[in-house]
């Protein structure tokens, strides 16, 4: 845990059920954010999951939102999102997702952000048998 305490306080790039208008947005983000803006993640592909999407490294673009935590909510929001995304820490074999630092693009420029991407075994399974989401926008899939 000590290494996680020194992590940078980055905004979060969300691309699935945490986006505005999706069912987890109000449950987990309402009252905990200082800003939310449209953003895109280059170098990633989006795959269907069981009611939520997975991003993996690839040659596409994923559409989502950049969410900046309210300063007094950062620690709590990080813990809540790690729990939701089943991220237990670097290298933990129980991880469904891993939280990684990536550059995301907004109207005002490119910024570093935390992104939850499919953990290694999940990503391998998606590449082999998964269903890609054309265009990389989970909200526009239907």
TrEMBL record:
Signal peptide location: none
Q: Key word Transferase present in the record?
A: yes
Residue ranges occupied by any Gamma-glutamylcyclotransferase AIG2-like domain in the UniProt entry: 12-139
Q: What domain of life does the UniProt record list for this protein's source?
A: Bacteria
Q: Does the keyword Nucleotide-binding apply?
A: no
Q: Name one GO molecular function term.
A: transferase activity
* InterPro entries recorded: AIG2-like_dom, GGCT-like, GGCT-like_sf
Q: Name one Pfam family in it.
A: GGACT
Q: What does the UniProt keyword field contain? A: Transferase
Q: What is this protein called?
A: Uncharacterized conserved protein YtfP, gamma-glutamylcyclotransferase (GGCT)/AIG2-like family
């Amino acid at each position: 845990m000590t290494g996680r305490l020194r992590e940078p306080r980055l905004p979060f790039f969300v691309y699935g059920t945490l986006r505005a208008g999706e069912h987890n947005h109000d449950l987990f983000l309402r009252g905990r954010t200082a800003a939310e803006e449209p953003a895109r993640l280059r170098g990633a592909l989006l795959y269907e999951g069981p009611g939520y999407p997975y991003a993996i490294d690839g040659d596409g673009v994923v559409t989502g939102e950049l969410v900046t935590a309210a300063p007094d909510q950062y620690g709590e929001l990080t813990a809540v999102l790690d729990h939701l995304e089943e991220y237990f820490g670097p290298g933990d074999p129980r991880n469904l997702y891993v939280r990684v630092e990536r550059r995301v693009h907004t109207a005002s420029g490119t910024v570093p952000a935390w992104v939850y991407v499919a953990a290694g075994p999940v990503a391998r399974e998606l590449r082999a048998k998964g269903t890609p989401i054309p265009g990389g926008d989970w909200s526009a899939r239907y």
